Amino acid sequence: MKLLTRSTLLFLLIMLPTFGAGAYYLYKKFNKEIKHETDEELVNDKIQWLRYIDTISVNNPILQVQTPEFSLAPTTKDVQSKHKLKGIKIFQEPENSYAPFRQLTQVVDIHGQHYELTLRKSLIEKDDLLKNIIYVMLLAFGGLLFFVILSNFFISKRIWRPFYNSLDKLHGLQLSQMETPQFPASDTHEFNQLNTVLNNMTTRIYQDYVSMKELTEDAAHEMQTPLAIVQSKLELLIQDPALTEEQLKTIAQSSDELQRLSRLNHNLLLLAKIENNQFTSTTLTDIAAVADKYLQLFEELIKEKQLQVNATIGNAQWKLHPALADILISNLLGNAIKYNREEGSIHILLEADRLVISNTSDYPEIPAANVFQRFKKNNQAYSNSNGLGLAISRKITDTCGLSLTYNYADDQHIFTVTATR
What we know:
With 421 residues, this protein is an alpha+beta fold. It is 53% helix and 18% strand. The chain has nine helices and eleven strands. The chain has helices at residues 3-53, 124-159, 161-171, 189-237, 245-275, 287-297, 299-305, 322-338, 389-399; strands at 70-74, 84-92, 97-110, 113-122, 285-286, 308-313, 317-318, 345-351, 354-359, 402-409, 412-419. The strands form three sheets. The chain has a five-stranded mixed sheet, covered by helices on one side. The protein has a four-stranded antiparallel sheet with strand order 1-4-3-2. It is rod-shaped and about 160 Å long. The two termini are 34 Å apart.
């Protein structure tokens, strides 16, 4: 869950019960005030009635009046010095329902006879008024709550913008392309502190990366000369007629391992150069010509394995350095030949923005997580591989605006290069 969403939800969880409690308190307060005002009206009416009753005679018809809002009935109860107030419900025939009333009762003495005086006030209109007030109040509270939440959302979004800007910079950060990124200053002290820490951290990481890359490149470059000298010495030594067969075998094995080490060193140096963007090109390379060239160069290997090659090569001009185009095509085509079975097949499809090379093989599907990783031999039978060929191909496509994918379907290993820009 995003930080902004989380803070908004927490704010909503706090504000909802707060506004709910406020609305409930106001409702109770209004209800109490209405009852209080109604009771005061009843008491005033009682005073007026008692003054009037003191002036009437024993046979006055008022002593027999019985209405829902006023009644004066003889009773045997004792005279009460104080009235009683309470809320009651009275059935209303027109509405066929019970309606709320406030009722005042008091036993009074009239000419020596005890009467129970009952006064009632309907609360129907006041209840409707209260409902309208509550309805308006809820609308006002709802609108206020929506406005507060919306304001909080946009204010929080504005406040957290520097944080998200820094986060976007970190997301887009690539060590091979990192050039001491700078995180901008903001109006918030804490974000400035965070950006200062990030600036210092990324600068140190970048400097360490540059140092490590230079060391790797220098070491790989410096190793080339002694490796070549040792290889040439072994080739001279192997021509010595005085050597025994066992000695020749040992020297041949050493030479093979030395050649393997030399290829590995060459590939590591090549990777370092690609990552260092030493192969940049502003012109287009004819990929069809490169594919034709390597089909001819690998012709002997293809014949040796009796492979059937089905090639559909169209016109394709990609913005790719010629040297990298050679490495990419030779790696993919070389793998399709090297790891193919005897009398297997290779299919090549080259279109304007897509190159597909698929081949049969006795080797199983390569796990997706390992296919482009360095030094990952996905099968121990890949004894001639140093595990860098596909990693170099992937690095070329990543740095040149291309994409390289691998699929396995219908007993075919399929590599697809797509020109994405």
